[in-house]
Amino acid sequence: MCSSIDLGDLHVDVVRKDIKHVHLSVYPPDGHVRISAPLHMAQDVIRVYAITRLDWIRRQQRKLLAQERETTREYLDRESHHVWGKRYLLRIVEADGPSAVRLTHSTLELVLRPDSDANKRREVLEGWYREQLRATARPLLEKWERLLGVKARCILVQHMKTKWGSCNPASGNIRLNTDLACKPSACLEYILVHELLHLIEPTHNTKFQSMMDHFMPQWRQVRDELNRLPVRHEEWGY
User: Fold this and answer.
1) What are the backbone angles phi and psi of residue 126, rounded to the nearest 5°?
2) Most CB contacts within 10 A, which of 65, 69, 90, 224?
3) Of all helices (H) and strands (E), which one includes residue 87?
């Protein structure tokens, strides 16, 4: 069930789901607002909730509009790419044989057949980023599952247009955005801890924030750093 609420110039999409708690989201790039609400929650109650969160919504929208965008990727020689927060220059190497990615002290070498186009270059490089993220996340997952006393059923790595990560407490599945492999590794650890804690507390209430403060006291600084870093220049979905 879908509906909407208008609060002055603010438009809020409302989606009713079979959930227990209301969830408020502000999506990039332009601050689109959506509320996911339990099936039984009355529209007037949702409206009052949105009004109480107006200041927070406006702050999030200002942050998103101020966030820097990366230039559109064309996968050409000497194009800038990042790996774990460090900048590298892309170097296209044409060679017969299987595709490969090699990282040197200053270049990100992409080895492909001579007839490979930009789509193939993107496919190979994004596949490499996924593997980098899986490899780096594995020991962090073991560490934090032990410290938090939780167990994720499955960690899925994929390109996500609107979030750095997500957690489904019912299934135990956690999703991580492939683009985290471009950011400093501390950002991946923050997102992983954030999503693992949702296996204990599904919402962002005071209990959740207290647990974040206890287990990762510096989480707000890492979150702010992640929010300041450039994000992909693309059409984001909701």
Assistant:
1) -70, -35
2) 90
3) strand 86-94
